[in-house]
Amino acid sequence: MTTAGKAGSSTASSPVAAAALAERLGKLDPTSPRYATDAVELVLSHASQALASDVHFHPGQVGLEVRWRLDGVLHPVAILPAKLAPNVVARLKVLAELLSYRTDVPQEGRIRAAPGEVEMRISTFPTLHGERAVVRVFATPGSFLRLEDLGLPGEIREALSGLLDETSGAVVLSGPAGSGKTTTIYACLRELAARTKGERSLATIEDPIESAVPGVSQAQVNPTAGLTLETGLKSLLRQDPEVLAIGEIRDRATAELAFQAALTGHLTLTTFHAGSAGEVVGRLLDMGLEPYAIRSGLLAVLSLRLARRLCPICSVPAGAREQHLGLPVNQAHVPVGCDSCGRTGYQGRIILAELLLPRLGAIGPAILAKADVHEIERLAREAGMVTRWQRAYEAVESGATSPAEIRRVLGVSTQPA
Ligand SMILES: [Zn+2]
Fold this sequence. Notes:
This protein is globular. The protein has helices at residues 14-26, 35-49, 85-95, 154-163, 181-196, 229-236, 252-263, 277-286, 291-297, 363-368, 373-382, 388-397, 403-410; strands at 54-59, 63-70, 73-81, 107-111, 120-127, 130-137, 169-174, 202-206, 217-220, 243-249, 267-272, 298-310, 316-317, 333-334, 346-356. The protein contains 13 helices and 15 strands. Helix 2 packs across helix 3 (85-95) and helix 8 packs antiparallel against helix 11. 33% of the residues lie in helices and 24% in strands. The protein is α/β, with parallel strands linked by helices and 417 residues long. The chain has 2 domains: 5-138, 2-Layer Sandwich (Beta-Lactamase), CATH 3.30.450.90; 142-410, P-loop containing nucleotide triphosphate hydrolases (Rossmann fold, 3-Layer(aba) Sandwich), CATH 3.40.50. Bound molecules: zinc ion. Residues 311, 313-314, 337-338, 340-341, 345 line the site of zinc ion.
């Protein structure tokens, strides 16, 4: 789960939090039987305070490296003694009710949080130097946002808000992990719950539930009990839902069910992993979904990326054109680093969003003709879609972010002409 827009102000305090954590870990007695329990407690509580999205416990030759991800970037935090690494990972497994004596198989679980506390999901993996563990930290319930808080461009926010009044069709959110897809789906659900006041039946099937939304019937997949996204969705459709939010679509069977729901009088919100809005359409076609189902069922694709915002205090204008890193911009700012931003040069994040509306222009016929991704993107631009690249160029020219950050987030290519 990612907080975005104006909520993303964690960077400023992150090095302070990391230093405070390292200092407190250093004071623990490695010979104490409580070491692992105390170390895990310290790391997890500091991680949630620092608004880290993930914490990595990585066993190496020198010890158990602890790193956390802030605003999308991984930072080293501490190294715990190699000898105690198995105990630390075992403690995490106990918290998540995993089989602590099995160190040879990957395991997944969640650390159940009390109401108002931060929810965490853990996965372990056997590696050369021992078990590695990654803890996903979900935002606190209080930090969940409404549609207007997401930092989306005004016209996209309005379009999305209008789509929530539709009674059938699919709205697909795409982007890499940590790009704000789930945050946006939850914001839509909150908006729907507030707007319809119980007059529409709202249901979800999620993997996992990251936040409880009042007024929405939420369910979580449980593959060991046979409740997958696919089987859950089939059953859910018999529960008279009007709005459905479905966890990430990963296979054809789920995609077909989701579109079947969208075509039979359900507003369906879902996420799909793809690099761009056009790529969502292309990959759904590649998956074998019928072009007519996409043509008639797909209301919109919203593709999201998050880029770090330049620190307003220390960033400076780029001195040379080379610093534009090949981006077609007239001016740019670059990061420097100061006390306010913890020497990173960045504070908070901005959204680079693109909204593809298949009903516009010649996109629909192109879908029926199974056109390729480039053609669909070209037609979408022709129909007025502002691409992630255009948002990126604007963000660089206005000094909101740097060319280097755009390269980190969007890669080395540029927008095709
Ligand atoms: Zn700064």
